[in-house]
Amino acid sequence: MATKLIGILTSGGDSPGLNAAIRAVGKAAHSYDIDLIGFLNGFQGLVRDQYVRLDMSRLSGILTIGGTILGTSRDKPHRMPVGEGQEMDMTPMAVDTYRQHHLDCLVCLGGGGTLKNAYRLAQEGLNIITLPKTIDNDVAGTDVTFGFDTAMAIATEAIDRLHTTADSHHRVIIVEIMGHNTGWLTLGAGVAGGADVILIPEIPYRTESVIRALLDRYREGKRFSIVAIAEGATCADECDVEKTDSELLTAGVLLSRAVRKRTNLESRVTVLGHLQRGGTPTGADRLLATRMGTYCAELIRKGESGVMVALQGEECVAIPMEKVAGERKEVPPDHPWIESARLVGTAFGDE
Ligand code: F6P
Question: Which of 4, 171, 320, 321 is within CB 3.0–4.6 Å of 34 for a Cys-Cys bond?
Answer without folding.
Answer: 4
